[in-house]
Amino acid sequence: MSTGRVLRTRERVFIRIAIAFVLLIALGGGLGLAAEGIEGRTALRDGPVGALTPTDRRCGKESCGWIGTFTGTEGTVTERDVQLKDDVEVRRGDTMPGAIDGVRLAEDGGTAYTADYGWRAPVVKGAALAVVGLAVATGLFLMLRRHRAGRAG
User: What pTM value is reported for the model?
Assistant: First the structure.
């Protein structure tokens, strides 16, 4: 078997695994980001209005976010352990605020959004990640196919 243009079996298997991995990451991550943005848009349009009283903060590598109790303005909706999504950067040492008014609760009840939440950015990032991932996977598939055709011919 020639080692020139023809791919060996191990290389073809590796490329197939790479295609599956790229698709999984791109579509899973891309659709997840886009879904977050769409959920935020829906909550800002249709979600119940109320106040979030922070009780804790959840920190990642770069920033933190407030976790608290959401209470609807009519007092009929109360949810605990609600994560707040907004456009304000929270740091580890920031003082916990009092109630944050004008917050809208998502349908799942686990996330609330302020009016300044930028829902477009996650949708655009998610779509871009999915498109780039599909392009990379398509390129790998075409490369595999071209080498398979080269072997046959």
Answer: 0.71
